[in-house]
Design a protein that fits this description.
The protein is α+β, with helices and mostly antiparallel strands. The chain has helices at 2-19, 29-55, 71-76, 127-138, 159-168, 181-189, 193-213, 226-239, 262-266, 312-329, 338-351; strands spanning 59-65, 87-94, 101-105, 116-117, 143-145, 177-179, 249-253, 280-285, 288-289, 292-293, 296-302, 355-358, 361-362, 395-407, 412-425, 428-431, 440-442. The protein is elongated, with a radius of gyration of 25 Å.
Length: 450
Amino acid sequence: MKKIYLFVFFYLTVNQVLSQNAIPLILSERERAVVIDEILEDRMNNLLPQLMRKEGIDMWVLIAREYNEDPVMKTMLPSVWLSARRRTIMVFFDKGPKEGVERLAIARYDVGNLLKGEWDLNTNPDQWDALMKVIKEKNPKKIGLNFSTHYAHADGLTYTEHKEFLDKLPTDLQGRVVSAANLAVNWLETRTTREMIIYQQICRISHEIIQEAFSDKVIQPGITTTDDVVWWLRQRVTDLGLETWFHPTVDIQRFDPENFDHLRTFSKRPQKQVIMPGDLLHCDFGITYLRLNTDQQQHAYVLKPGEADVPGYLKAAFKQGNRLQDNLTDNFKAGLTGNEILAKALTQSKKEGLRGTIYTHPIGNHGHAAGPTIGMWDNQGKTIGSGDYPLNFNTAYSIELNVSVDLPEWKKPIRIMLEEDGFFDEKGFRYIDGRQTEIIPIPKPLSGVK
């Protein structure tokens, strides 16, 4: 009996190892902490001074209380700080190119190795008084606070904290307070060289998980439901020690009278549709790893008995999706706003006879991140505010869109819905880990079997 148990244990262990062979290396929690802190130190030392000078803000003050963190502050906490502590106040003061940016925490202790604690209870028992002492000593020209009309990411200063700050700030300094919205967005949207090296592997992990989900390891036509695949995705992410920033979706288009509907696809779709041969599957999936996020949508087709490949009419439809992607990313030019890029891409696509809808967004520290909005699925015109924001170098995007294609074979139009993560810099646009160019067949053809 003991031999049987050992054999079963060995069999399960080998299967677990083999099942993860396709997934790139995933670091342990301790290793991740080292990487996160190294990236944060690089951003603080090299990126932050550039951004503050670009926006002309010589003092940036971030204030948040525990469990109600400013979204920007959350990205500045050390790896071992999972939240703010009591009231956390960060002060960044630019002393000029020679001396750099001084980083202070109005706290009784340092915030990791990056912000020096600057609160002496003996001198200033009140934390607000300690902050005012620093501000008076530094005498900044502009005091940037995180409040914004158009970006939730840059609107992290709560009503109470804002009011208490202004109540304490001397009258002669009140006129120096400005919105740090653009500085906050710049901080969140800009990716460093180190981050982009790592980002490729994060996107690859996400791609590999989708490949597993859209395979006969997970899907048995006639039995498996879309909801089964959704929960397999959630469980796979958890088993790998990762997180997802949204609940995945899996939906079906097939030869039936049902027409595509955005609300049905994203919020009113049936939870348990049995996957059948001839179905065109679509997933929306993303992971969070090393404080960066992915957001990907791909398609798979379930082969009918006797079929060895995806039908040609579906392949042709899919190419229209890739073409719409090209029309969008070809118009990525630094300085253009999201609204301008959208208009150019839609005009070009219309000339080519493509019926496209574009709803692309920045990605990075957040899934729906800060930066230029390039269309919304329910608004293909101008998006006030975030759509007016310009495209900057060293920024990442989820190229999200769909194209409607008439299928005579199904006697109705279908939607090719694609989303892939990309990066824009001085060299132009590129996909971080490539993009889907062919529909995934389920099952995949076996080598040497026809």
